[in-house]
Structure formats: C-alpha cells, structure tokens
Amino acid sequence: MDPYTYPLPRLEDYDVSPKTGFLPESLPCERLPQKYDAWENAMTVLPALLLTKRIRSVVDRFQKLDVSDLNESQLRRAYTVLGFLGHAYIWGVDTPCNKLPKQIAEPWIEVSEKLRVPPVATYAGLCLWNWKEILPMNDDVDFLDNLQTINTFTGGIDEQWFYLVSVYFEYCAAPCITIGLDAIDAAREGNIKEVTEHLKDLAERIDFLGSVLMRMEEMCDPHVFYFRLRPYLAGWKNMESAGLPEGVYYGDETEPRILSGGSNAQSSSIQTLDLILNVNHHATGDSDNSKSNPFMAEMRKYMPGKHADFLEHLSKVNVIKDFVLSSKNSELTLAYDASVAMLKTFRDKHIRIVTRYIVIQAAKERERGSDGGQRTTLRAGLAKSKDNVLRGTGGTALLSFLKQCRDETGDSAAGNWGKRILSVKRTNTLMAETTAEQDDLPTKKPKV
C-alpha cells in the first residue's frame, strides 16, 4: 500500500477528539446505575477500606452483577471501578493475593473485552476515564485548574495530582494530533511551505508538553508517590519478588493472567508523536535496529481498542520524514529537526521525573534496608524484581528503556546539523541534573 495515497484516519472513527484528543469529549460517567451500588459504595470509601485492610472481606461479599446493560460511557466507568477494586484486592493487604473472586473477575473480563483493553488497571482507567470538573467549565479557568479525580486509592492530593497532570497532558496534546495529520496531508500534496509551518507549530506544542509534565512536581511528593501510591499501580508481571510469581487467577480460570500495571507508556499521545515524526524504537539493549521494540507494541494492547486502531492506521500514512528527506529543503529540514529536538527534550524531562520519583526513592529504600531499618511500607518491595533491576509498573527495565527511547528520538534527525546536535551526549546537562538531585540521595553511614 502507498502511504501517499492510503486514506488518512478520520478522528471520529477512532473515538479521538480534535478538542480533547484521546480523552472523551463529554465528561466521564461518575457513577453507575443503582444496580451497581455495592461497587460504587465500596469505591466511595476505598481509602478507608485499604487503611483498615477490610477491602477483601467487603469484595468477597459482593454478588456477581450482569454488565450487559451498560452503555459505552458506563462500560468505561465499570472498567475504572473494577480496576481500582481489583488492584486494591490484590495489593491492599500485607500479603498480595494471587486470585480474584469471580464476582469481580468475570464482569471485569466482560467489560474489558467490550472495550478491548485487558482486565487490569491501565492508563485509560486511571486517567482518561477518571476525571470530572470542579465547576462547569468556562474560558476564564485553565483546564487543569478545574479538574478533580473521581476516585483514588489513597484519598490524597498527591495521587489526585499524579492522575490529573496526565489528564491535562492528554488535553494539551490534542492539537498535536490534528497538526500532525494536517502536516501529513500537506506532505502528500507536496506543499513544502505548509508542512514547514505545521512542523514549527508542532515543535512549540511539544515544548509546552514538557512544561506540563514538569508540573508533576508542584503537588505530587516523590516519597508519597513511591511508597504510598505506586504499589497499587503495579500489575502482575515480573512481580515474583513481591509475592506473585505466576500472575493472578481470575475467578475460576485455571491459567493465571500475567499483565502489566498502569503506565504512562500506555498513552496514545506519546506514540502518536513518534509516528508523526517517524521515530523508530528498537528492542531495549538490542543493537539490531531491524527489531522493533516489543514493549511499545505490547503497550498498545493496553490502550482502548479504537485508540490502538488509530495508531495502526497512522503508521500506514506517516510520510513526513520521507517527504523531508526527499525535498532537501533547509527550512523544512530545520523545522522537522526542531520537532524531533523538542520530543527528545520531553523525554529528557521524563527521565528526570522518573529519577526523582522512582530511582532516588528506591535508593533510599535500599539504604534503609542496609541499615537494618524497617520498610517504609509493607508493600515497598513492589518496585523490585528478582533480577534486582528497577522496573516500571509496566514491567519493563525502567531507565535503560527510557534512555534508549530518548536516544532513538535524537537518531531520527534529518539534517546534518540536527544529527550532530541531537547525537551529542549532553554530559554537562546530565551532570547538572544529577547535581540538582544530590540533596535527595541517601548518604551512606561510614562503617565502624
């Protein structure tokens, strides 16, 4: 198939909005019908049930409910509710449980199949479908300033902010989707000037997304995130050291399911930017660039089905880099490389966030352990794996994956100048970032 003639994806066919991107354009359902009060009532007091470790006894008393009567918005709500309850059931007591009772497992599977997402807490359930307005929206209030979550595990501000920054990120990324499609359309028409202007616009938008990401630091404390929230986000993949060597059994199923937990790698917006700019990712640590990154492909399975379909369609028409290279226009090449540079800078900022919120906190936990101190939380071991590699909630080796994604972004530069600038290892920048974090690192006590 010819990417220059294959039809462009229509956003409305894939539940993508030109206004809100991969967020639903209408407000998410906040509560299921009365029939589902047992679920919703448990959600209302979920932080208290986790605090008192009563979550399993409450869920065990549920009756199995038929979910065949739910519409699309209600299915999303049910998926979110069952995701919170399911993860709370598995991780919410001192020892994790490797089996979900069928009264939540079976409806969770049914809802998931209809939405084409796996039965586990995903980015969609935690973020895309878990927000509401504080007051009716008006143009005088910034979108983020008028958001609140519908549900959380902990009931805390830090957890709310963690989800809401991601919601705001998706909202701000929405224009990138339409700009990218317009750029592809202009490229197919051979219009160098229009493609150049679209890429300049895209570069500025991606730059702003980096500032949105860094707002995480405003209201989400790294210690609270790592020791109080992150344990509940974990799935049941690579979790042997946390007590789930085989995954989780759903109801009466005889084979366990091994699933990754919620991860920002499940954001369709990030993969959209990669596709627009033809950024290719390869297997982590693999020098054979012919192999695509299996984790990125795996994460598409955790996206809402129609969103994954959109990415697949987009991959068939992403001609921008080819157009840039064949046009040999200096201004166009510079605009393209500027967009790539902004995407690489965004990934640098993501690594900084991961370093503060996960890497440094894990180092502090190891330091406490080496001192013979007690764990900060009984579930603090969830960040570790049997091979002592720090892993994300998605189950991948964390820093090596993120750094490779960043470096591969720089490798996509089209012009000689862009290749030279983006391929340079920014040692001074990394050293400055490391120095800025030194105060957060634990100091080893001298042996006596």
UniProtKB/TrEMBL annotation:
Pfam families: IDO. SUPFAM superfamilies: Indolic compounds 2,3-dioxygenase-like (SSF140959). Transmembrane segments: none annotated. Gene3D superfamilies: 1.20.58.480. It catalyses: L-tryptophan + O2 = N-formyl-L-kynurenine. GO terms for cellular component: cytoplasm. The keyword Heme applies. It comes from the Eukaryota. Its EC number is 1.13.11.52. GO terms for biological process: 'de novo' NAD+ biosynthetic process from L-tryptophan; L-tryptophan catabolic process to kynurenine. Heme b binds at H350. Keywords: Dioxygenase, Heme, Iron, Metal-binding, Oxidoreductase. GO terms for molecular function: heme binding; indoleamine 2,3-dioxygenase activity; metal ion binding. Produces N-formyl-kynurenine through the oxidation of tryptophan. Belongs to the indoleamine 2,3-dioxygenase family. This is Indoleamine 2,3-dioxygenase. It comes from Pichia inconspicua.
